[in-house]
Write a structure and sequence with these properties.
- GO terms for molecular function: 3'-5' exonuclease activity; 5'-3' exonuclease activity; DNA binding; DNA-directed DNA polymerase activity.
- This is DNA polymerase I.
- It contains 37 helices and 24 strands.
- With 942 residues, the protein is of the alpha/beta class.
- It folds into 4 domains: 177 residues, 3-Layer(aba) Sandwich (Rossmann fold); 195 residues, Nucleotidyltransferase, domain 5 (2-Layer Sandwich), CATH 3.30.420; 107 residues, Taq DNA Polymerase, Chain T, domain 4 (Up-down Bundle), CATH 1.20.1060; 193 residues, Alpha-Beta Plaits, CATH 3.30.70.370.
Length: 942
């Protein structure tokens, strides 16, 4: 009978099933040959339960199909090459399982459909349309928001993750518009997951409001000039074409050419012989036995020795993939319940831990509560500092009822959180360790899911919990803004209702535990277990101690500098106005452009989309070279650059650092991001102490404010030219290696090799040119860039680079080999095994050059970062008996605070650790050399 009225089509999003199954189960291999089959086992579990459940359902389908993506490339990549380019490639152990899931589908006697050049969503859209037009119904079994545009007129969705139907109301709740306008909203908001650009600065909520007001996207773009908000109006005008391209990307193609018809999709019972053959071949002993019992056939024999270990793998919808049921989370309000949870953690040997506080500043935040996770779906929140009231001028906040005594709760938590037999699992664990340390609890040992992701996925995406949850668990966490609000009306977490706080906080622990179960076994598959265990995880407590120690800052010195900078700014403004012949706002790039290029007639001005001239530092530096043809313009540009530098020093450092001084400690406590840079370099924030300029006198003066307390000294130990040394080793350059072994002036030696001049009596300008090339090559500098740095003609600069590669051919060979490796494998590696992904390495256009330069530099900079990490991890033991504290890391430099009488001994110990940090993992062909300095302040020490 032809498909029509009374028929019901089920379309299963097979690709989503695969990834859900893969992320839900630990790695699983077929014992006979080691073939990965974990995702296949989970997929078969889900398909089996689907078949069982719908066979007994009153609303059972009459027709069904499982839909797959053919590949990662589709017709959308022709429209927009960057579409989904930011997505990581499938894990290596998942790739061979894709074809097996198609086999599994057919083994269950279900149609498996995929079409080259089209996505699974396009196939689903086409079949849903055909079913609707034939008079039947269609249910799409998926949680993919992109499919919501299809809902209506007999088409609905079922979310298997949340076990709920999704119709018109759910679509409007998600997108703020009815399904036929979802595409318009998505085109405006874009999609960071799929790399759909959309309209910059316009999010989902704003997009929905605009479509509600103007009706549809075409009307909105046609009437964009009417929009009152200037920024929004200009965005829609400037990016209209990009928005239309985005619409083409998100709109599902419902006329996909299909190899089947609806009539081919009629439900058929599994054929036991075919299904048993497949399950037996996969060596799924438990699953084979269970399905054989359901089909009332005898299960083929699979010996225990040959069986894949699906016996110990929970099904995806059982423990590891338990649904996120917020109502199941527990609020722990008394000692007996908390004691039971802690006893369970002690017995199983691991627990996920998260803290809720009043601030992101760990040194000033108050502890509000602690959440615990024992298993997927089993999590609890211990409220400790929630308050009520205090919302007006007269009402004082009071402690909310139903909370344990803080001291008693911490006393119960402390033994387990400090127990060496219980693993504490966290996401960005350094934050929680510092919060709990201030409460008297030294958390150890730890695992960190953020760092596990970083070790495996650096360069592919961020490593925040929300992103990881959505990408690897298929779950969108509760947004913190829904609890705290935003802007001036935002509240702190202690004012959140305890019931709502439990849903949010316990979910964090639940997600963290699931991510750990997913990531931990994958580290060895990605060959980064050593990186995680030696460079990432052990660095967490080291950085936590450094950050809590902080560094003493002299407020009076900063105040005097701020005043001096303010006076200097006034003087520079007066001089700039005099040169220009008029007063204007020196802080306005637009006005600077008008003065330079319109009023003063300096050539080369280029206007951007807003109609204003570009006046960035690179533009102004070019203008300063026009001393002969436009002396006044050159002078004005130079003075504006001076003004900007002083203004930045004042606002970013001398003013801001005064505010950053902790009133309790009198010190500044920066926070280091371990996963902040793809190459392994640490990033310093709140405040950033790594970017204080040291090349100008004013910048160097700021370091004078960082001081040692009375009776102590600051020590600075800095690797000498470490990246050049690593380049000499990696690229195997005999001349450079020999120079480093002999302790020669490497820049003078390079100049001598390149220009044929003796080292003795060398012209400083020639050495300066060689130094610029030495450091420039590490970063893949171009002839144009070198010309700008040295202020010489571009042809001359390119000649220097060509001569450099002729003299040191190994460097060019290293670059070519590195780029070739990156293109083939999608990543590069440091000498210590750190993997740095290079997703843009095969891109074309303006970004291609940057991607290649980044790939060339990453093994060098990353190896340098690894070396200082290794040194930092070893440092606490090395200085344990000395009156010395490690305070700061600034790229290749470590700063210590030491009692005056222990300076020499500390220098000796620290130098030994730093200079031997590569061993025994890597034997470098060049020595690592560390320079040491001491002083009453950081400027003197460095």
């Amino acid at each position: 009978m032809a498909f029509g009225k009374g028929h019901h089509l089920h379309l299963i999003d097979g690709s989503a099933y695969i990834f859900r199954a893969y992320h839900a189960l630990p790695p699983l291999t077929r014992k006979s040959d080691g073939l990965p089959v974990g995702a296949v086992a989970g997929f078969c579990n889900m398909i089996s339960r689907y078949v069982d459940g719908n066979g007994s359902s009153k609303d059972a389908p009459t027709h069904v199909a499982v839909i797959f993506d053919y590949s990662s490339k589709t017709f959308r990549n022709e429209i927009f090459p960057e579409y989904k380019a930011n997505r990581p490639p499938p894990p290596e152990d998942l790739r061979p399982q894709f074809p097996l899931t198609r086999e599994a589908t057919r083994a269950f006697n279900l149609p498996a459909i995929e079409v080259q050049d089209y996505e699974a969503d396009d196939i689903i859209a086409t079949l849903a349309r055909e079913a609707r037009e034939a008079g039947g119904r269609c249910t799409i079994i998926s949680s993919d928001k992109d499919l919501m545009q299809l809902v209506g007129d007999g088409v609905e969705m079922f979310d298997p993750m949340k076990n709920r139907q999704m119709g018109l109301a759910e679509v409007e709740e998600k997108f703020g518009v009815r399904p036929d306008r979802v595409v318009d909203v998505q085109a405006l908001a874009g999609d960071s997951v799929d790399n759909v650009p959309g309209a910059p600065g316009i999010g989902l909520k704003t997009a929905a409001l605009l479509i509600q007001e103007y009706g549809d996207l075409d009307s909105l773009l046609a009437r964009a000039a009417e929009i009152k908000q200037p920024k929004r109006r200009q965005t829609l005008i400037d990016f209209a074409d990009q928005i239309r391209v985005s619409r083409d990307l998100v709109r599902l193609k419902d006329d996909t050419p299909l190899p089947i018809t609806l009539d081919d999709l009629e439900v058929r019972d599994p054929e036991p012989e075919a299904l048993m053959e497949f399950l037996t071949r996969m060596e799924f002993r438990t699953l084979t036995k269970r399905i054989a019992e359901r089909l009332k056939v005898e299960a083929p024999a699979i010996s225990a020795d040959m069986a894949a270990s699906d016996d110990h793998a929970p099904p995806p919808d059982a423990e590891a993939a338990a649904p996120f049921d917020h109502t199941a989370y527990v609020t722990i309000r008394d000692e007996a319940v908390l004691a039971d949870w802690l006893a369970a953690a002690l017995e199983q040997g691991f627990v996920a831990v998260d803290t809720e506080t009043t601030s992101l500043d760990e040194m000033r935040a108050d502890l509000v509560g602690v959440s615990l996770g024992l298993a997927p779906g089993k999590a609890a929140y211990v409220p400790l500092g929630h308050v009520t009231g205090g919302g007006d001028l007269f009402g004082a906040a009071v402690r909310a009822e139903g909370q344990m005594d803080v001291d008693r709760a911490l006393a119960l938590l402390k033994p387990v959180l400090e127990d060496p037999s219980v693993l504490k699992i966290g996401q960005n664990m350094k934050y929680d360790m510092k919060i709990l340390a201030r409460a008297g609890i030294r958390v150890a040992p730890i695992e960190d899911t953020m760092l596990q992701s970083y070790a495996m996925h650096a360069g592919l995406h961020g490593h925040g919990m929300d992103l990881l949850s959505e990408q690897y668990l298929g779950h969108i966490p509760i947004p913190i803004k829904t609890l705290l609000g935003s802007g001036k009306s935002a509240i702190t977490f202690d004012k959140v209702d305890v019931t709502e706080a439990t849903r949010y906080a316990a979910e964090d622990a639940d997600i963290t535990l699931r991510l750990w179960q997913k990531f931990r076994p994958q580290l060895h598959l990605a060959h980064v277990t050593t990186v995680y265990e030696t460079l990432e995880r052990p660095l967490v407590p080291v950085l936590a101690e450094m950050e809590m120690a902080g560094i003493k800052v002299d407020r009076d010195v900063l105040s005097r500098m701020s005043n001096a900078f303010a006076q200097k700014l006034v003087q520079l403004e007066e001089e700039i106005h005099h040169i220009a012949g008029k007063k204007f706002n020196v802080g306005s790039p637009k006005q600077i452009g008008e003065v330079l290029f319109d009023r003063m007639g300096v050539p080369g001005g280029e206007k951007g989309k807003t109609g204003a001239y570009a006046t960035g530092a690179d533009v102004l530096e070019d203008v300063t070279t026009l001393e002969d043809s436009h002396p006044q313009g050159a002078l004005l540009a130079a003075r504006v650059l001076d003004w900007r530098q002083i203004a930045k020093l004042k606002s970013t450092y001398t003013d801001t650092l005064q505010e950053a001084i902790n009133p309790e400690t009198g010190r500044v406590h920066t926070s280091y991001s371990i996963a902040g840079a793809n190459t392994g370099r640490l990033a310093s924030t709140d405040p950033n102490l790594q970017n204080i300029p040291v090349r100008t006198e004013e910048g160097r003066r700021i370091r004078q404010a960082f001081v040692a307390p009375e009776g102590k000294v600051l020590l600075s130990l800095d690797y000498s030219q470490i990246e050049l040394r690593i380049l000499a080793h990696i690229a195997d350059i005999p001349a450079l290696k020999q120079a480093f072994r002999e302790g020669l002036d490497i820049h003078a030696m390079t100049a001598s090799e390149m220009f044929g001049v003796p080292i003795e009596g060398m012209d400083p300008s020639i050495r300066r040119q060689a130094k610029a090339i030495n450091f420039g090559v590490i970063y893949g500098i171009s002839g144009f860039g070198l010309a700008r740095n040295l202020r010489i003609p571009r042809a001359e600069a390119q000649g220097f680079i060509d001569r450099y590669f002729e003299r040191f051919p190994g460097i060019r060979e290293y670059m070519d080999q590195t780029i070739a490796f990156a293109k083939e494998h999608g990543h590069v590696r440091t000498l210590f095994g750190r993997r740095i992904h290079t997703p843009e390495i095969n891109a074309r256009g303006p970004g291609a050059g940057f991607a290649r330069r980044a790939a060339i530099n990453a093994p060098i900079q990353g190896t340098a970062a690894d070396i200082i990490r290794r040194a930092m991890v070893r440092m606490p033991d090395a200085i344990a008996g000395l009156p010395a504290t490690m305070l700061l890391q600034v790229h290749d430099e470590l700063l210590f605070e030491v009692e005056a009488g222990a300076v020499d001994e500390t220098i000796a110990q620290v130098k030994a650790v730093m200079e031997g940090a590569a061993h025994p993992a890597v034997h470098l062909d060049v020595p690592l050399v560390v320079d040491a300095g001491r002083g009453a302040n950081w400027s003197e020490a460095h």
